[in-house]
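Annex B. Sample input.
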Amino acid sequence: MDAIDILKKEVLEDQSIIDFINKHNLNKEIVDFNLLNFKIYKDAREICKGCMGKKTCMMDVYLQQVHLDFSGNNVSLKLKKCPYVDTINEEMLSFYFFPNDTFEGKPYSLDSRKDIYSKMKDYFKDPLKKKGFYLYGPFGTGKTFLLYSIASKLSKMNIKVALTYYPDFVRFIKGNFGDPKVETMINNMKNVDVLMLDDIGGENNTAYIRDEILGPILQYRMVANKPVFITSNYDISFLRDHLRETKDATDAIKGDRIIERIRHLTNEYFIDGKNLRQTN
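Annex B, continued. Sample output.
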């Protein structure tokens, strides 16, 4: 099988492409001539299917989706505005909002989730005056899902929630050093009603990120008594070691300051159980 045959087999495994071909009654010649367009569409669609407004946009044309178009006997690619763009605060860039996620879900059906479910229900009784959660545990045990669910519930209570995948946020900061929008993002993180940081400890830590970005955000929210939710694969004690060790030096005191802020802002809960990402 040559490269063209491999490409054709790949694109024709996509049901949306098959539907497009059937809808416009495209013949073999037109299909073969447009294999590259179909491939571009398929790859772009995979990016969007994995996002749906919940991740940093990875499209070459920011916040645009690729669609197939057929006119004048030609297949072409068209860009359309992302349907989730209205749920994205572009000033915050790596923040994602979850107004449509379901609060009841698979993780709660497991015995290991019952305790945290009870804690969540208690939190919702007065969400702006109670501590957030520090959720830690192995990969795939539902920590991020729990954040999505809490964010969804809060949004329905007209509480502004921002959730960011922390390693992406760190990469954004490093890649946009000195850009004014970084300061805007940090101010938004300080002031949003409820801030959620997903997967702390998964980033490549530096003294700058720890001391000039994360520290001031947590300090502000601690003084202002604003809730913070955090997920990590590390318990807080192990996270202490991660924050002490930076590219520049081991700095125990500054790492400990972050940990004390986290302890003040959150209650720590271990999330155990089977890996929910594994379907078999």
